[in-house]
Amino acid sequence: MPAPRDQHWHPHAAISQWAVAGGMVGYPVHIVFQDYPAPLIAELFRRHIAWVENKAVVSVFGLNDFRQLSESLEKIRLVLLFDPKLLVKTCWLLDLHRKPGLSGRKPSPVLFTSQTAAVAGEVPGGSLVLHGCSPQVKSLEAWLDSDTPWEKSLPELALPAISFDPPQLELLPDLTAHPTLQVLGFREREILRSLLIGAAVCRRVQVGVPDNQLRVNHQDYQAVHKALQSAATRTADEHFDPLALAMVSRANAYVLMKTHQQEKRTVRTDGTDDAASDERNITRREITDLGNIRGQTVQSLLDYLLQQGKAGLQVFSTIGTNRRLKENDDWPYRDATQLAKLLLPWGPKQTRTRFEALQTQGLITASRAAANQPLMYRLPESLSNPASPFRLLPEPAVLELALAKP
Questions:
Q1: Which residues form the domain of 371?
Q2: Count of domains for the chain
Q3: Residue 294 has pLDDT above 90, yes or no
């Protein structure tokens, strides 16, 4: 994978390569690509198939494929799973196949799936969920369009002796045990170690290192650290859902707009407004319309936010954009049609399987801050908080200084 400074470098493409490369030497990371458009995932999968060679890849569409996989684990390097009902079973099969301990491992298959996996947290081992409802979508599309070359084909490696340079890198989880830092859990440590080793494998293949040594160094940490900082990169048991958060935030902005419009239209004879008396919840159709970024509902919402100036910009930055807006940025465009292109879309199926399902479960609630305030929708903290333990990892420069001390 090109170095992080390369303008076409993409963190999720890099992570997927490191995951497979780590599996080649016994340190796999399973990947769930959630909410990425199917054409992007198909192209990414095709590149991986070419990288590890078709004969080492198996696609699982049902139980018959699962049975065939269980009989050929020794020669398989990548499993493409298309039946989400088999996710837990397949991950257990692959993880129990892996040799125990940290030394003397043998190649272990890596699983990729592009299905929304509600049970992802129940899978064992190192597993990551890479969310496509984020700025990652546009940047992955640009990365694929750039036709950035991958490294040389990943060969069947003679299992190398793995070492860390400096040796303290292997103890990285312990280096984060600081009063102000959260110690990485078992799954996070396994993911970090495996991605570091996978990055080292990719670097070794790229430069053609001939010996049987695999040394994980600070360059590998720098690349992995950068890739893990995105809020769209989560461990399998983290529940943060950027698409659900975008839906709730956009629904709140829409309700706010309707309230203000009603305040202008509905006035009691005593001169007070009657807007707060509207107790109607937002409908499934309205949520679906808010995901149609080319529709009139979104156009009206954006026109309204533009009229609100700086306050409207603050709301716009929270309703699900495909690029990050910094706190002091101005409006990127003054035209609603152009602004709509910066919003994340969703369709009727995602409205049903996300917003409506969470609302039915009581995980999306609605309340008013005061009697005269508009109805606001809320998610639990676990679904709306983008904090990740990987974001607490020390910056590469800080770590380099710490490791240099005697």
A1: 242-384
A2: 2
A3: yes
